Amino acid sequence: MERPEAEPLGASHSCQTGEAEPGTGPAEEEPGGAAAGTMMEDCLSKKIEITVSEAEKRTGRNAMNMQETYTAYLIETRAVESQTEGQCSPPDSLWRRYSEFELLRNYLLVNYPHIVVPPLPEKRAEFVWHKLSADNMDPDFVERRRIGLENFLIRVASHPIICQDKIFYSFLTQADSRLKALNATFRVKNPDKRFTELKHYSDELQSVISHLLRVRARVADRLYGVYKVHGNYGRVFSEWSAIEKEMGDGLQSAGHHMDVYAGSIDDILEEEEHYADQLKEYLFYAEALRAVCRKHELMQYDLEIAAQDLASKKQQCEELATGTLRTFSLKGMTSKLFGQETPEQREGKIKVLEEQIHEGEEQLKSKNVESREFVKSAWTDIERFKEQKNHDLKEALISYAVMQISMCKKGIQVWTNAKECFSKM
Amino acid sequence: MPHPLAASSSEEAASELTPSPDLLLPRSFADKDLSLPNGTPVDTSSPASSSSLLNRLQLDDDLDGETRDLFVTVDDPKKHICTMETYITYRVTTKTTRAEFDLPEYSVRRRYQDFDWLRNKLEESQPTHLIPPLPEKFVMKGVVDRFSEEFVETRRKALDKFLKRIADHPVLSFNEHFNVFLTAKDLNVYKKQGMALLSKMGESVKYVTGAYKLRSRPLEFAAIGDYLDTFVLKLGTIDRIAQRIIKEELEYLLELREYGPVYSTWGGLEMELAEPLEGVSACIGNCCTALEELSDDMTEDFLPVLREYILYSESMKNVLKKRDQVQAEYEAKLEAVALKKEDRPKVPADVEKCQDRVECFNADLKADMERWQNNKRQDFRQLLMGMADKNIQYYEKEKNYKYLPSTLLIM
């Protein structure tokens, strides 16, 4: 089946027109649009067609050697040219799971901090909390996620800068994309434990609240059905009362109460929506929490890289000064093979390094200060947030319980009225 | 004490059904032992008997000062496993001061077949009367468990009602077959003897295949006929609605069962919120229990009574048809006589007999219809009030459960 060229959901991307001539990009675009127009011509999305075509349930063992079920998605890539030429070459394909997409995105976030990196579709807890809550296996969810993941890849492939990233390309084409190994290298080594826990918490909070909201919606739907069917009693009691003598009045008025009962559900459910909204707010708050944790991670990563950099420069300096080679380096080997440098050259190098080291130390100092201040103020706000959250959610739960009680009272009232009518039959 | 539905050994079963001379007295002795001081239920330890006592009291209220002298109860279902088949028997207890009975109290065991036999005999021998319906005879084996507690209890209640209605009937309660049913140790022996105690009326009213065409139906019977047609339709609709409600309730229950635990899961993530969240979860769990009870009650108590009235109405319609036939026969014979001018001064005996039959039938049926209308009114008042009650109880339970998280949250 002929597929239209890869297009992000809902986008009217100038990249996709294919007819934009260099220098005649849409006038509304910011300066550099013309250049961007040219670059867009070279986007990966122009050269290969990317699809996430299938989803499959898998079981395996996770890092803690526990059995888990997860969904794997099939990424297929096909060179665009081969299609237009009328050939239909088989696509290259490989399977990836959601967490691998996350690794890729994290990699992009860290390595292209100035880029607005496309988001991933909804995150859901990979491991199953409760037998009944295996949402990430729900076929509708899996299907929507499949589309979202495909959309993500196409967005990245359509981005003039990050589409050229080698790691991205190998993600699409090589089963072992070294992402996991890379993950180790760009993982933050010494994050503040509290932020790690907070990130974990906010992931789980998002997961549980969205599950709750989904089930609550289904519960409301079913409850609606129960109430509404009772309305049918109203009609049939009315018809029946027409053929009765003494029983007629009682039946008729009872029927009226059944109608009242059936109608009462509309207000009840509308009130419940307010409760759902209160929960939703905290669902979105969880995202904001995550952002703060991410910021800390990035700062920490930055700090660690700077420290690492500084340390290696210091070592290089030392080696040059003492003339010993402590660690293996290609430079060292080549200089051994192709002759040493002159003392002047060496002196020059040492001087440059010393300057850089001095600069680096200053930078590291200020970065450390920045980081400490961030942690302090972030954590103060997080504590404030926690208080607010506990207070708000407690109130929400109370008002929910109150709503339920009032619903019960209404039910008792209606049925008591109906019972009285029946007693007069 | 063995469970009522526990299988009794086949020997016991055999002794209950065909008492051989050797095995006699333990059985009849036991029966005599069950004749407790007047007025107290036969077996106070069995919950079934206290509800049957209540039933009796309720029917007492209905009788407008008539003195009741015949009390019948069906209880104590027991399962019997024999080589050929497995079945249930029910204990039928009678207390009476009527002269037609040799003893003041009886206790026998009967199975559904026996009730069916009784009903057929009554229809044969009292064709001008309305015979109460029995619960449905055939049950699809794969669909319903004939031996489940719920099914047996539902059936027991219906059989109890059946016998009570006959016992309350001024004519049917004196029927010979009814007497034998209540008193005979071994009904099978009696069945085989084929006692033909048909009343004169019964014998003459064997026939009826629409041989005669009715000229005009008296207004009151026509009205009843129309009424029954509509009544049955409405009952059918109510049955469908009730079934639909039960179905919706069960689907609601299914979702609730997933809903509750999610609050628990969330509670596991939290510190301060853990308790209230856990409270909500527990509360939803309790509501599930209450909801299940409500649907079970409706299935077991409400639907069977509705269905029984549909059967009752159908059998009433059949009796009306029979009446029409008797009238048609009379009219046809009368017409035939009118043509023969010679016999005109004297109306032939058989035509007179037909006229008698018609008038008897009409009178009997009219009385029965009135009785039926009254009972119907009582029964439906009770049924619908019961339905309202169950719903009230459900909401009361739910409301009480809901207080839990509220008090916790206020801390």
TrEMBL record, chain A:
* All residue ranges annotated as the PX domain in the record: 51-179
GO cellular component term, pick one:
early endosome membrane
Q: What does the record give under GO molecular function? A: phosphatidylinositol-3-phosphate binding
Please give the InterPro entries that the UniProt record associates with this protein. AH/BAR_dom_sf (IPR027267), PX_dom (IPR001683), PX_dom_sf (IPR036871), PX_SNX4 (IPR034902), SNX4 (IPR034783), SNX4_BAR (IPR037430)
Sorted alphabetically, the keyword list is: Protein transport, Transport
Q: Where is the composition biased (Low complexity)?
A: 17-36
Where does the record place the region Disordered?
Answer: 1-36
Q: Share an example GO biological-process annotation for this protein.
A: positive regulation of autophagosome assembly
Q: Which family does it belong to?
A: Belongs to the sorting nexin family.
Q: Which PANTHER family match?
A: SORTING NEXIN-4 (PTHR46596:SF1)
Name this protein carries in UniProt: Sorting nexin 4
Q: Which organism is it from?
A: Gopherus evgoodei (Goodes thornscrub tortoise)
UniProtKB/TrEMBL annotation, chain B:
Per UniProt, the ranges with Low complexity bias are: 1-16
Q: Which Pfam families match?
A: PX
Q: Which GO terms describe its biological process?
A: autophagy of mitochondrion; endocytic recycling; piecemeal microautophagy of the nucleus; protein transport; reticulophagy
| UniProt keyword Transport present | yes
Q: Where is the PX domain?
A: 68-189
Highest taxon, organism lineage: Eukaryota
Any single GO molecular-function term of the entry would be: phosphatidylinositol binding
The text of the family note is:
Belongs to the sorting nexin family.
Name under which the protein is recorded? Sorting nexin-30
Gene that produces this protein: SNX30
